[in-house]
Predict the structure of Hydrogenase maturation factor HypA.
Amino acid sequence: MHELSMADAIVRTVIDAAEKNDAVEVLEVTVEIGQLTLLNPEQIEFMLDVLSEGTILEGARFNLEVVPVEIECECGYEGVVEADELDHFAPVIKCPACGGHEFHVRAGRECNVKNIKIEKKD
């Protein structure tokens, strides 16, 4: 259950950024979660709600954006590998054009706080 540690890191990151910007309240947080992280967005959202209780984050809206896997293959294919082509227990990715495994993953591994909307002190 690596969702708990990731949710904790997200909460700490957001609280730190909010405090550095003199926030009195965090209104909204947008988080990008790559498909290759194998993080469950519903579990992340639940844990974010639980971990934010009693903090400046309590009551904030969490927007979780799932980032699809994008590759650059040696065959020349550049694009998204559809989610239904992934085995969620042991992700094996292959190029949809040539079936090969020699490629660079451009997106889908990230777990980033993309945006934080705060209310500042008057």
